[in-house]
Amino acid sequence: MLILRVVCLLLSVLCHAKSAECNANDASCQDELLDKTSVSLLQLGLQMNAGQNKTNHLHYKATASSAPIRSEDHQKQQENEGVCIENYRRGLNGVRQGLGNTLQDSSFRVPKVSEKPLVIGAGIGSTATRSVSKALMMLGQKVSHCGVDFQSCDVPAVNRFLSPGLTPGWGGSAPRELTTGEKQQCRQILSSFDYTNIPDVDAIFDTPVAEVFLYLWRSFPNAKVILTTRNSSEWLASRAKHHPAKALVPMQNPCGEYINHPATSFSGKQLETLFDMHSDLVRCLVPDNQLLEVNLFEMREYQKKALFGNLANFLGMSLPSTLTKNPFSSSGKGQPMSPVRARRSKASKP
Q1: Closest CA to 25 of 186, 263, 239
Q2: 287 and 304 share a domain?
Q3: Mean pLDDT in residue range 307-315
């Protein structure tokens, strides 16, 4: 731990020194800084986390409003999460100096905690969240995803703070710009919002789920997390094409920050870096037995065929006996992979 802190401190000083040479809003200069800073602070947190015995979050009272019990295992988990969050903050500052100030303190508390084993879709939009949602519905799960109905375009109900003026769904008005004061007020509201107050569903996907994942993770410590991913450059091209005026920057608490509306001060490379950092943050925070990672864009056919069974196993469910179609594969009902192949699928390797 001491070595990790020393390394992080040295890298943080180096990044700050280089960042001082750049104007805070000079995207090209910040891109050059990203090229020079080759060591991933977030990966350091991932390596430390992987070397410890990961535990699940079961040390909570039954009521949603209860505070967590400070057991030894829970304290260790909180310490691990703190490292993940602080390394993510340093990564934000590496993208742009001061951007880490938009992130909550690593010791933050949520107003209420629920024991519900909610399925949280932690992937940013345009990463096949809709495909996974449809698969869950085929398993009999009640799923919230924008497009199923317009009410599902705001679960949890924080879009009115993140994007004031936004009309739910694909059409309608675009969000308006926020002043600096409004952005600060938005972050304050997010910190006090009750994230357990959601519709009676089994799973939640799509914006704004990923954008407030930290709050949701602390609010639902028994959650099963599905992280949908893809190549960051391909993601940005798709997101900008299909959601040109409404897509939020892929980071935590992006109050009034959009990838290209009304104008963005983030370069394409910065947006791609933020996208990858989000996935790394989720991997760092969530214990292995609560995380399933899916990259449909890089899976071979046999992996897609097995994915439906793996998804059911992950949720402790069985495939329906009447199932005639696999939502991920063009042929076959699909069965779970062997443990080795399942791990390869999670790592998105061909």
Answers
A1: 263
A2: no
A3: 96
